[in-house]
Amino acid sequence: MRLLKRGRWQLLLKLTVVLGSLWILSLLSGSKTGWDPIYTLRYNWLDYTDADGGPEKVCNCSAILEGDREALDQAKLLTITKDFRKSVQIPDKYYINATKDCRKFKLSRKYLTFPLSQEEEDFPLAYSIVVHHKVQNFERLLRAIYAPQNIYCVHVDKKSEASVISAIKAITACFPNVFIASKTVSVVYAAWPRVQADLNCMADLYNASTKWKYFINLCGQDFPLKTNLEIVRMLGSLKGGNSLESEKMIEGKKWRVTLSHQIVDGKIQASGKAKDPPPFKVPILSGNAYIVVSRGYIRSVLEDNRVLALIEWAKDTYSPDEFLWATIQRMPGVPGSTWPNSKYDMTDINAIARLVKWQWHEGSQDSLDAVYPECQGNHVRSICVYGAGDLQWMLKQHHLFANKFDTDTDPIAVHCLEKYLRQKALAGLHFKHF
To answer: E-strand spans in 275-363?
Structure first.
């Protein structure tokens, strides 16, 4: 009994010394609010660690992010190993079953169920996510960007496989601020339905009770490069402005808006008819589908008669998502817009919305013609599907999101980004309170 009591006293003494030392450190750090000795332990369960399991844990993410050649070679070897690629696949059925107990699902997947700061809580964001396959990609994206003060509209392509639709519906049903778009369409690449999918989410988000500040649209193969707090601060610095690609359309693309197009057997094709000029003689600018815009911009998209006329005119064009938002951004009177003068042209590199590596702009580091280094993954429709070797370069860029990622071809890139962003978010939380 005496030995037991002595052991308890020794343990208590050690704990007192540790807590006392931490209290002194808190005083030295200039804390004005006091220090909670349990605080630094409170959020450990939210961090992504190798102990969480998963085949990717064999990789050294810290070394990969530092560009260590041995770690990158190991990651590259794994991604081409058949057994590894098979082991990282999560079937749709898993999500359907796992979400039957939402509390357990959110706990095991380590979703953030509370705002990490007052600053973030006071600056809610609205997301539109358009998906048609790869449920695992979607769920990992949602987990990476999820915060309870934000609001998320998910548009699932009508022609998606039944298991995909069921799995995504099951995931969204676990969150009060995540929902399926009230109207869905069959998305056709380079045709109007791609724009309509975002328009449907824009309307749902604008009419929701959450008075969000900025709208960001994504697809299922995007992934963030910044924490929610970093995104909030970057958007706050825009002071109501928008950030998206918007520049003069090159001659080689003008046929997209001068010839009428239609959908035939699920594909877009030219009808052989010339289109009338755009309404109000608005100059058509070139851009892309992904944007970062203010609530006022979305209000104009839904209510401004000039914009509504432009939308109607654009419905039979080719790839309208690659000029519509860019053109609206240069219409005087649209909140956060810029003047149509070429002085205000903005490329995708200068905008913060999306980082994309196009194959024809890649090159070696000593090439003056290259816009960015060569893709370390593989290419799909001339777009780089990022590999782990792209991460070090990617995280030095100012963009909020990057495209494309694919857990089927390189899950390590996503895994290491997940860990990096979560640790960064929680490290900021610890530092603030310490």
So the answer is: 285-286, 292-294, 354-356, 362-363
Tell me which residue of 340, 118, 351 sits closest to 235, measured CA to CA. 351
Joined tokens for residue 143: 């987990």
Q: Tell me which residue of 393, 426, 356, 362 sits closest to 65, measured CA to CA.
A: 393
Cα separation, 262 vs 80, in Å, equals 40
For residue 267, count CB atoms less than 10 angstroms from its CB and return exposed for 0-12, middle for 13-18, buried for 19 or more. exposed
Q: What are 393's two structure tokens? A: 């370069």
CA dihedral 214→215→221→224, nearest 10 degrees, is 0
Does the domain at residues 90-349 carry the CATH identifier 3.90.550?
yes
Which pLDDT tens digit goes with each residue over 413-426? 999 999 999 999 99
Q: Can you read off the two tokens belonging to residue 42?
A: 């409170």
- Element of type H or E holding 108: helix 102-108
Tell me the three state secondary structure of residue 402: strand
Distance of CA 83 to the CA centre of its chain: 29
Distance from the Cα of residue 124 to its chain's centroid: 15
Tokens 């069959």 belong to: 186
Of the candidates 150, 149, 163, 159, the residue with the CA atom closest to the CA atom of residue 184: 159
What is the chain's length?
434
Instruction: Give pLDDT, residue 50.
Output: 77
Query: Can you tell me the distance from the alpha carbon of 35 to that of 42, in angstroms, rounded to the nearest whole number?
Result: 13
The contacts of residue 386 (CB under 8 Å, 6+ apart) are 357, 375, 376, 377, 394, 402, 404, 405, 410, 413
Cite the active site residues: 322
Q: Where are the beta strands (DSSP E) in 50-166?
A: 125-131, 151-156
Under a CB-based contact definition with an 8 Å cutoff, are residues 342 and 248 in contact? yes
Domain coordinates in residue numbering, the chain: 2-37, 90-349
- What is the rounded distance in angstroms from the CA atom of residue 201 to the CA atom of residue 157? 13
Residue 217 tokens read as: 């649209």
- Asked if the peptide bond before residue 134 counts as cis, ω within 30 degrees of 0, the response is no
Contact 347, 247 (CB under 8 A): yes
Reported as a single tens digit per residue, the pLDDT across 112-148 is: 999 999 999 999 999 999 999 999 999 999 999 999 9
Cβ neighbourhood burial of 222 (10 Å; 0-12, 13-18, 19+): buried
